[in-house]
Amino acid sequence: MNPTALQFGPGPWSSEQWTQWFFENTDNWRSIPWLLGASLSGAERHAISRSIAAFQLGESSEGKHLLKAAKLYASRSGDLDYERAIRRFIAEEQGHARVLGRFMDLAGIPRIKHTWSDWVFRRLRRGAGLEQSICVLITAELIATIYYAALREATASGLLRKLCDQILDDEAFHIRFQTERINLLRTGQSAWRISLAENLQRILMRGTCRVVWRGHASVLQAGGYEYASFQTACLARLDSILRPRSLLAWSGAIS
Ligand SMILES: [Fe+2]
Ligand SMILES: [Fe+2]
């Protein structure tokens, strides 16, 4: 594990620590074997092209609405480092878009500028407060962890498999970063409000699974999923990060 993570411990981390983490993680990207080339078979290329192009587009978001919500939150809460942490987080996602784009260029896979699912995700975040924005993001991040593991299995390309490994490592910390902030934002909220928000998150996850399956079934099937098992896996991951009841009681949120 990255020594910074060991040094900071299990968390939750402060915004300053997260900012440092994102800075240092950039340097810690394992060496990506670009010289191997894309090495995709015709069948692999056919199975992943449209799908990887859509994920590359999704990773490239400038995060304007998230940044706006984060700035507002930072000034209201006094946690001024949070804005810096969010900027570094967005930069890391854009780094994913860059390496996926470079891989696509090597493989001769054309880039795309819009997909309707990307449009829907961006609309969901527009005008939303920080908590809602993070909920939408967490949905995407959790699905990404399943997606990139499946993409890894969809190919024998050493380069693409390494890229998936690195992105999966990063996404695990993105989920932690977002989950810690959601827990903080929900501290002190009433139990019924948290329960309502969590149920809305489950509904959002179910709807997103449907959309993602439509666009990415060929890759997800290569990872061993059928629709039902994919949805079950996504919901299980969501449940694993929703705030444990014991923590709710501890924070006094249960009256
Ligand atoms: Fe990413
Ligand atoms: Fe991410």
**Poorly predicted sequence stretches spanning 5 or more consecutive residues:** 245-255
The biggest sheet, with number of strands, parallel, antiparallel or mixed sense and barrel status, is: none
* Ligand list: fe (ii) ion
Q: Count the strands?
A: 0
Please give the count of helices.
11
Strand content: under 5%
What is the number of independent domains?
1
CATH architecture assignment: Orthogonal Bundle
Helix content range of the residues, please?
over 70%
The shape, in one word, is: globular
CATH fold type = Ribonucleotide Reductase, subunit A
| Rg estimate, integer Å | 18 Å
CATH class: Mainly Alpha
Q: What would CATH call the homologous superfamily?
A: Ribonucleotide Reductase, subunit A
Which class best fits the helix and strand makeup? mainly alpha
Mean pLDDT: 89
